Amino acid sequence: MLVVGDLSPTVRKTLSEAAADSSLGRVVRRGRLRVGIVEGHPGFCVRRPGSRTAHGMEVDLARALASHVFAGSTDLARRLDLVDLAPEERVPALLSGSVDCVVGGLTVSHEHSRLIDFSDGYLRAGRVLAARPGAEDACMLPGALAGQRVAIVAGTTARATLNDLAFGVVPVELPRLADCVEAVLGGKIDLLWAIAPLLRAYLRSEGAELWVDPVERALETWAIGVPQQDRAMRDVVNDVLRSLRRSGRLDAMREHWVAPAVVQLP
């Protein structure tokens, strides 16, 4: 059972000023924070087979959020639900209210901003092209990208940024990064267009070999997604991110889990 003493003072203050139907109000009444994540991304969120515990930078961020909201609770494990979502399910999950926020590689973009709001950014990273070893000429030679089939993760900004990169490419949307890597390794797709730290961490973890372009393009900012016009939830999330940044913990998370393949935010 949740008691008022379980909430942090800043959350109690924000809650007193929030609309009754705010996400934060529902979190408090429920006594649990439901955070959307994307599993299968080493360095960001991964759960080993047979394990109930997830690990990664975005898991640490989710735990920091729950710890802030329920600062007075003696059992934080019972206050946090991590909800695994495919990338294309992230925004719909926020719109339906099945999660309270999303910490799962959401890029701040015009398309997303029409539907949801964002916190401050917590990471910046570029996209890279990847190919089977020996097939990198498809990335390097002038004009060679035209007509190439390029795997991208559905529900991300990959399609828009790929269209900006080259004319005449053929994007092929697949559900998750693992599907994209498998399709390229199996010769079903020519190339892969993915976030650099995500791809490199995945290849290291799985022992898979792809040629990865050393040049990163289409620099993106990742932020935590919250329901649109829900100022209370956005303020609480930003309080956590700013505290982590001031204390150096945000930099430490990046360094531990995903550095050096990211660009630090000021």
In short:
The protein has 266 residues and is α/β, with parallel strands linked by helices. 37% of the residues lie in helices and 23% in strands. The chain folds into two domains: 4-124 and 221-257, D-Maltodextrin-Binding Protein, domain 2; 125-219, D-Maltodextrin-Binding Protein, domain 2 (3-Layer(aba) Sandwich), CATH 3.40.190.
Please outline the helices and strands.
Elements: H1 9-17, H2 23-30, E1 33-37, E2 46-47, E3 54-55, H3 57-69, E4 80-84, H4 90-96, E5 101-102, H5 110-113, E6 116-131, H6 137-140, E7 149-153, H7 158-165, E8 170-174, H8 177-185, E9 191-195, H9 196-206, E10 211-212, E11 217-227, H10 231-247, H11 249-257
Parallel strand pairs: 1-4, 1-5, 7-8, 7-9
Antiparallel strand pairs: 2-3, 6-9, 6-10, 6-11
Helix pairs in contact: 3-10
Q: Would you give an account of this structure?
A:
The protein is α/β, with parallel strands linked by helices. The protein has two domains: 4-124 and 221-257, D-Maltodextrin-Binding Protein, domain 2 (3-Layer(aba) Sandwich); 125-219, Periplasmic binding protein-like II (D-Maltodextrin-Binding Protein, domain 2). 37% of the residues lie in helices and 23% in strands. The protein contains eleven helices and eleven strands. The chain has helices at residues 9-17, 23-30, 57-69, 90-96, 110-113, 137-140, 158-165, 177-185, 196-206, 231-247, 249-257, and strands at residues 33-37, 46-47, 54-55, 80-84, 101-102, 116-131, 149-153, 170-174, 191-195, 211-212, 217-227. Strands 6, 7, 8, 9, 10 and 11 form a six-stranded mixed beta sheet that branches. Strand 7, helix 7 (158-165) and strand 8 (170-174) form a beta-alpha-beta unit. Helix 3 (57-69) packs across helix 10 (231-247). The longest helix is centred in the last third of the chain and has 17 residues, at 231-247.
